[in-house]
Please model this.
Amino acid sequence: MTTNVRFQSGMWRSLGMSVLAAGALMAAGEGTVGTQAAKQATFTKDIAPIFQEKCDECHRQGAMAPMSLESYQSARPWARSIKERVIKRQMPPWHLDKSVGIQKFKNDASLSDEQIAMIVKWVDAGAPQGDPKDMPPPKTWPSDDAWQLAKVFNRPPDMIIKSDEYTMPAVSQDQWWKPVVDLGLQDERWVRAVEMRPGTAAGRKITHHALAHLIQKETDALANDPDDAANDQGGVLMEWAVGKNYDIYSPNTGKVLEPGAKVWWDIHYHAVGEQVTDHVELGVWLYPKDEKPKYRTYLTGFQGTNSGAGSRLDIEPNTIGVSQGFRVLKAPAILGNFQPHMHLRGKAMLLEAILPDGTTQTLSYVDHFNFNWMTNYIYADDAAPVLPKGTIIHVTSWHDNTTANPNNPDPNQWVGWGDRTVDEMAHAWVNVTYISDEDYKEWAAKHQPQRGPRTRAALAPPATPNN
Ligand code: HEC
Model:
């Protein structure tokens, strides 16, 4: 019952915000131009530029989304659905609460409040086309077979790692393809940058996201943290989702490949009505053989369950479950990103830092997690949190095991920790770069560490509806 009330107030809050913003825009239009025509939002003039910027990368011919939004004719039938998805901030897939925590990212894909207001205004006016002469020139998209980083490094990748081929039938449940590939490395090598892509244009349509996990013997004490099963194996080398094609590590930092390293792929395919056979490939740019960067970046799974992986996730039928995990940083560290990982019942995840002086910083809060979108929120270099030794990383996760969750296969089931998508998990993938005490002191002398407000998010279940 309480959940329902919250659900609605969450909806109204976001609706109300957009309506207000739309009103403000209309008022501005009246003041300056005053004619009926000037007030009307049209596809060609107002909407096509927004779609080109924020949607068409996925919503175009041959790309992964179900329909193209490039032309008026292809977008018009979807107007109502577009309005709903953008108001709830389900599309573009950026499911972060914009009112708390860090808001500066390298890959922010979200719409501004003004853009949402404009789309709502257009749909409410009957989604008019407008003057075809206003249409912006078509956008050109990078060709599918060029490595984007080849331009940055002036050379093709030093290594190309390919998954085995997979054939996705025309009609199927989503599939997870997990082949293992030996890299054939004799020596330790340091990674400067990685870029991942599906093998073919057809493959782009079926490839939802892909992970390349490293499997290697770790000699490093930080990597061998017994609390972190993932790091024990080398962690994730690269994670790909549409819109995120490559990672260049900060200068003088990188990931390490040990002799004998293997890549274990985890590729999420979904069916698109035609049979497609494809693979995924990962281009790797290395540091020169004799060059070792100062710092190693560790992709770390901060558990949002009560203690390590596999324990004490206990979600009762027809409830919203909450669980939390704590982990102390053993050295000063920079956190590079936040990527919540949960399964079908995943609802929300909050990342906080409890500093040695007892204050709490809210770093990020994904308040409407959607299992279909494992979005990675990559902090801008100057916004990435730098934290002292002894900071406690606190991850709180919520799972919605009620009928309000459209992804829930069975709200009458008890759910525990496990690999299947009908089981649950909760961890935050974070690229952690440990720095020296001297480097931390130097940073702290120049910066006033922010003290994020402690919000209701930290205290109560999320107010927004699932996904
Ligand atoms: C990163 C890729 C991506 C971006 C960017 C993106 N979409 Fe989508 N969109 C998808 C995919 C894939 C689906 C189908 C799966 C889903 O619903 O999550 C989808 C579904 C939709 C749907 C629902 C279609 C249906 O079947 O009812 C709408 C509406 C939509 N998107 C609108 C938009 C709009 C408007 C934008 C830009 C403001 C946008 N999307 C940006 C990939 C994307």
User: Anything to note?
Assistant: Residues 2-134 form one domain.
